[in-house]
């Protein structure tokens, strides 16, 4: 067998592949892989003696090997989200969750500590279902026992006032007071 990769054996003789055969194989391969997310960049005829056993077809000692490249996406140059953040939708969903989960709960410091984490995760999951693309969300949930005291919650941050927003939801029952603060930060 010849060292030249562009030669094949047919009918007992070695011959060089025609340009048509190379282009036609490449076109057929590209058509077959059209639905795949990768793009065929280059095809080569290789000697199968160098390949692992699971790659070798039984019919011949030569095969076509493709070089596959990752899909490259073009920049969209979009500077705003497809669906912008709507605080009234988020406020409605979060208040439903707080009412549903805290309606019959009595304050206990140990259980409320873990309960705030699960409430925050549930609120984030419901916000992500809304499909606000290009936003990152921060949810803080505070549960405080009612004992005729006041509470002040303060947050500071650096953000773009035209795209970033926040909303706060409060819930009260006879034994506790809960506040959920939701920040939506635009992420380009």
Total DSSP E strands: 7
Tally of domains: 2
Q: Radius of gyration, rounded? A: 31 Å
Determine the CATH topology of the largest domain.
Ribosomal protein S3 C-terminal domain
Overall pLDDT level: 77
What is the level 1 CATH name of the largest domain?
Answer: Alpha Beta
Low-confidence stretches: 1-5
Which percent band covers the strand fraction? Answer: 25-35%
What characteristic shape results from the CA principal axes?
elongated
**Secondary structural class:** alpha+beta
End-to-end span in angstroms? Answer: 56 Å
CATH superfamily caption of the largest domain: Tctex-1
Discrete helix count: 3
The order of strands across the largest sheet is 5-7-6
Major β-sheet, in short?
3 strands, antiparallel
H and E string:
EEHEEHHEEE
CATH-derived architecture of the largest domain: 2-Layer Sandwich
Q: Helical content, roughly?
A: 25-40%
Protein name: Tctex1 domain-containing protein 3
GO molecular function: dynein intermediate chain binding
GO biological process, one term: microtubule-based movement
Pfam families: Tctex-1
């Amino acid at each position: 067998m010849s060292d030249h990769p562009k030669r094949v054996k047919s009918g007992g003789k070695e011959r060089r592949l025609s340009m048509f055969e190379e282009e036609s194989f490449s076109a057929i391969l590209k058509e077959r892989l059209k639905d795949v997310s990768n793009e065929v960049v280059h095809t080569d005829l290789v000697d199968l003696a160098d390949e692992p056993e699971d790659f070798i077809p039984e019919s011949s000692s030569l095969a076509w090997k493709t070089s596959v490249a990752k899909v490259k996406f073009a920049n969209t140059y979009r500077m705003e989200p497809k669906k912008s953040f709507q605080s009234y939708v988020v406020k409605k969903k979060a208040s439903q969750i707080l009412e549903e989960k805290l309606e019959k709960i009595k304050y206990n410091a140990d259980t409320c500590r873990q309960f705030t984490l699960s409430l925050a995760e549930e609120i984030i999951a419901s916000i992500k279902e809304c499909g606000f693309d290009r936003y990152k969300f921060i949810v803080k949930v505070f549960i405080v026992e009612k004992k005729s005291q006041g509470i002040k919650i303060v947050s500071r941050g650096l953000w773009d006032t035209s795209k970033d927003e926040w909303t706060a939801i409060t819930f009260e029952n006879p034994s506790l007071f809960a506040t959920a603060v939701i920040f939506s930060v635009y992420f380009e």
